[in-house]
Write a structure and sequence with these properties.
3 helices; about 85% helix; mainly alpha
């Protein structure tokens, strides 16, 4: 395997690891917020409306803007690395 291929795999893997970390970080934060909303109403587990309300808050609330932006950038990078690799394989 060529050094450039090893570098490409390492960079792609690092970008994917960062994306996975950010995605799980966001999902765990949403889950925690939904559990807190359920606890405020005396419930042990969040209902579907409580969970959906947290997803809507994540999508719109200004306090989540940094997380949304970082997740969007990392998602674009993951897709770009896949597309670039596909283009490299297709060209020969």
């Amino acid at each position: 395997m060529s050094p450039s291929m090893i570098l490409w795999i390492a960079v792609s893997g690092a970008i994917f690891a960062l994306w996975a970390f950010q995605m799980f970080r966001c999902l765990f934060a949403l889950s925690q917020a939904a559990r807190e909303a359920a606890a405020a109403h005396g419930g042990a587990w969040p209902s579907l409306p409580e969970q959906l309300a947290q997803f809507a808050a994540f999508a719109c609330a200004p306090e989540h803007a940094r997380d949304r932006r970082l997740l969007l950038i990392l998602t674009a990078l993951v897709l770009a690395t896949s597309l670039i690799r596909f283009a490299m394989l297709s060209s020969g």
